[in-house]
Prior knowledge:
11 helices
Amino acid sequence: MTRHYTPNPTLSSSISLDDEIKLSATPQQRELHESLAEIFSIIVTLDYVEKAFVKDVITQGEYTATCSRLLGQYKTILKNESVREAFGDLERFKREFDMSYPSATSRLLTGLPATYEHPTGGPSPSSNPNSSAPHHPHHHHNPNHPTTTHPSARLAAEATQHFITFLDALRLNYNAKDQLHPLLSDVITAVNNVTSTDFEGRASIVNWLIRLNRMGAGDEVSEQERRQMVWDLEEAYAGFIKALG
Length: 245
């Protein structure tokens, strides 16, 4: 015998398709969900930006500015303790929301735009508007970078000051990730505003930034690591000054 479903009039009358379904019971929950959604969108956008840069769809300057902004937004959102607790870590977040995005993952773990991680090796031919030199992928002119042969004295002085500030912090026994990472980020940003060429010790700056970026917010470097960082940054500073020639 075939049985037919008969709707429950009491149940059906109590539910309206026009009713708004609330995903959050409190303003705090709504803010948390919005922050996690922002992180999701940052990962998706960053992956697109990484691929666009590799395919030479966007210029080096556009890539650096956009990537830096997205990385900054990601770090700022995760400064909130409740968001950080709900987020867990990047791999857990990706599993929970069934995400992959390997290019964005690599960039978030590095914490630096690819243009900071790998110097371009010199001024772009496009820095001269009348130049007829051939175009090479990923060697776009960045308007924020003066030509390597004529660095701005003001930008060079700012980079020098950031080196000194970071070394002073190390000598004052600063050892927490949230103390050191912003200062070292300032160093590499200032250096890249002066020159896009490689110099002795530059790789050490990048390596320490990556190591600090992968630490937890409350983690600290050991005394041995702090002393090694002083040594490496002093060598990088000397290499930077020598490169200015």
